From TrEMBL:
Signal peptide range in chain numbering: none
UniProt-listed InterPro entries: Homeodomain-like_sf (IPR009057), Transposase_8 (IPR002514), Transposase_8_domain (IPR052546)
Domain of life: Bacteria
Official protein name in the record: Transposase
A Pfam family: HTH_Tnp_1
Species classification: Bacteria, Pseudomonadati, Pseudomonadota, Alphaproteobacteria, Sphingomonadales
Length: 59
């Protein structure tokens, strides 16, 4: 999953699409969606890329 895609899904939710509909439409589990929401909610694409980069660096 790309950063753009994840942020796009989260923005759809902010626009009012129900989480269950998003999960069905994009083929992701509810758990995955809520994990992304808690981790990336409110961040932009650049910030998500930076966060992922730091996580990979620390692994």
């Amino acid at each position: 999953m790309t950063e753009n895609w994840i942020i796009g899904v989260l923005r759809e939710r902010e626009a009012g699409v129900k989480a269950t509909e998003l999960c069905r439409r994009h083929g992701i589990s509810d758990a995955t969606f809520y994990k992304w929401k808690s981790k990336f909610g409110g961040l932009g694409v650049c910030e998500v890329r930076r966060l992922r980069s730091l996580e990979e660096e620390n692994s």
